[in-house]
Amino acid sequence: MTDTNQQLIAAFDERAERRNERRDFFKAAFGAAAMAGAGAAAVSLGSVVNAQTAPTDADILNFALNLEYLEAQFYLYAVNGTGLAATLTASGTGTAGGTVTGGAKVDFSGDALVAAYAREIAADELAHVTFLRNQLGTSAVAMPNINISGAADGPFNAAATAAGLTAGGAFNPYASPENFLLGAFLFEDVGVTAYKGAAPLLTSSIYIEAAAGILAVEAYHAAIVRTALYAKGIATPSKMLIEATEAISNARDSLDGAPALDAVRGIGPDGDQGILPSGTGVNTIANIAPLNENGLAYSRTPGQVLNIVYLKAGTNTAGGFFPNGVNGTLKTSG
Predict the structure, then answer these.
(1) Which of 120, 162, 245, 318 lies 20 to 30 Å from 18, alpha-carbon distance?
(2) Domain carrying residue 92
(3) Is residue 22 part of a domain?
(4) Which regions span the lipid bilayer (predicted)?
């Protein structure tokens, strides 16, 4: 075996060990609370499952549509200074959509590369909204009230504060290309885990394939954002961008609870990762794709996803980026 191969194997082992250490940390952090509530949670979950019918494909697609409304508004405002047309926010039966609080155009003049990424992602999210609305027809829910404000009392700053990132002042995702990328990082990984978690709930093979197509695009978006942040973080360590992704990752994990590890299904208490690399020097390995030890992306349930976008742990029906909650059947977090 060559020295190069030995170095690569050692580096991969180190990356795996880092993931194990992160998982052990979260097990220790959440273990006591999880054990204390395990019995009550099992009874509660069983009662919900028995009392309610399984969500329909329309329920699941509408849940996804709520998230696509949020992402599309954020990216369109960042690129154009304006959001979705009213014709794309009304319900399938014509009920007017909600309002958007905040949103602003980012000055990308000094960063043509991130500007190009932003324009591409904005166009993709617009296409996702349009596609889901067309598939749902009259069943499509209207856009709920959305808050994407970059103000001190907005959800982005609240999320950054929870992650411990606001010591230098309020966080505004529209203030710079770097801040925009961190705002996008907050959404994109969640979108990937949301679509992966929803896939087993769909019954139509047509919709499963369509959802897989959107999942793939969201994963590309996440990789773009993570790669751009990684490159900038390596080039300018003083900006602490890599460290910021780790803080956001930890905050998201603290919101979505600590599900038992299932490495085959891609579920676990540490179902989130920043972009901190492993190894050193020529053996450094980036962490662009957040995977478990089997090389699988993680899943989140709709309730866990809502915990993150509502910016609240436990059981809630509104908050954060959706001040009045999402529209449709799947609207309760936890």
Answers:
(1) 162
(2) 54-310
(3) no
(4) 25-49
